Amino acid sequence: MRTEIQSILNKLGIKADNAAFSTGSVWGGDANAKSLESYSPVDGKIIASAKVATAEDYELIVKKSQEAFKHWRTIPAPKRGEIVRQFGDALRANKDALGTLVSYEMGKSLQEGFGEVQEMIDICDFAVGLSRQLYGLTMHSERPNHRMYEQWHPLGPVGIISAFNFPVAVWSWNTALALVCGNVCIWKPSEKTPLTAVSCQHIIAQVFKDNNIPEGVCNLIIGDKEVGEWMTNDVRVPLISATGSTRMGKAVAAAVGARLGKSLLELGGNNAIIISADADLDMSLIGAVFGAVGTAGQRCTSTRRLIIHEDVYDAFAAKLVKAYGQIRIGDPLDQNNHVGPLIDTDAVANYLNSIEKCKAEGGNFLVEGGVLEGADYASGCYVRPCIAEVENDFKIVQHETFAPILYLIKYKTLDEAIALQNGVPQGLSSAIMTLNLREAEQFLSSTGSDCGIANVNIGTSGAEIGGAFGGEKETGGGRESGSDAWRAYMRRQTNTINYSNTLPLAQGIKFDL
Ligand code: UN1
């Protein structure tokens, strides 16, 4: 392991990185359970190994969390917010260390690793304010001397299933909101990024300990698909918030739906930017290239398609090809590089397979893909971002490939462009680049983009935490992070109070004894 990473682990106080679960300060697991290894895609080395949780471990976690919930929900929301504020401060103190570890374990550029931790800090700040704003409405009762209002109560243990691509930020979006709402959390991180999860658990557990909060409020459980299935099938976990592929989300929705639980799904995207004839092409270039190659195309918000007006198509395609020639691929911890590796060699195989399929369907590659070879790329996970001219209805274009493959599609009219943009099964993020007000407003209207996120003169990725994050159709319909996404983490209760000295019935019904 690199020495800088070892010193980061020391700084984060990680000693028990082989444990299968943590309820706070206590780490545990069956020593004979099978291990899960965390490989860095940066150099292919094993960074750590973690035990996989057993069914007994899981039981213990759920029981602890139920116990902790009884106490946590009684702490006033602003006091819970104060603890989240301290968590945000702990993240500030550890931003460099955690951001570097994210970059090393997941492979995103160091800048994006720091950005990910910044998102965590931002959501903590948001949640602190929110802890004084968990508003319900008041209504006028139809009966005299009656008062009607609604209030929001916590749900209980919230199951958080997160993906490798944002190994820590998406957990924190869920956790910060769930905590101020009075819930406790059980986190199953991606099996590809257990070490960053262990680090976060160390950081947050210390905050709880410093505040004398009994353990079990934030729990970590490491494991594979089976652990996720225990959670999704468990009536004791009223809400499952899951981030990942559409295939995974359908399984989660079916299992949680079968027990009438709540699920919050943030699944695949197939995000497009429309580049209008009235676009600022230089600005569009930055949005398109960052959107397509940032995080090596492994964001759910990554730009996968560019829908370009025929009048600017050739000029913009030429700019793109030139820009792709300048992209530096390599060690993401070296800030001179723009693009790091894919998460693992399976992802590389998937990338190559998608390129083959695209060619078989008639895709014309303006920038060829391929796997980089040589000592600097020994992990076998470094690939070239590529660009192909395609038709929107190619099967491969309809599918989300989690890799830096950018598809170009030509259009004539804005109606056609919007139909193309909407003409995929997914509905997460979308954008239009235009200086034409009419075009921008049409794109944002009810006949425009069908996505959860629709931007003007901004790319598809890099959303701020203040807005609700998520999308429609196969993206799953969930909303996390800002705006009123907190409501998903609470149950609503309507209260009607009679302070009169009679008991009138609603709807004017007479019932005299
Ligand atoms: C994800 O890829 O799952 O909007 C989350 C963005 C980031 C979050 C992405 N703020 O690109």
TrEMBL record:
The keyword Methyltransferase does not apply. The active site is at E266. PANTHER family: ALPHA-AMINOADIPIC SEMIALDEHYDE DEHYDROGENASE (PTHR43521:SF1). InterPro entries: Ald_DH/histidinol_DH, Ald_DH_C, Ald_DH_CS_GLU, Ald_DH_N, Aldehyde_DH_dom, ALDH7A1-like. This is aldehyde dehydrogenase (NAD(+)). The keyword Metal-binding does not apply. Its EC number is 1.2.1.3. Belongs to the aldehyde dehydrogenase family. Transmembrane segments: none annotated. Pfam families: Aldedh. Residues 32-494 form the Aldehyde dehydrogenase domain.
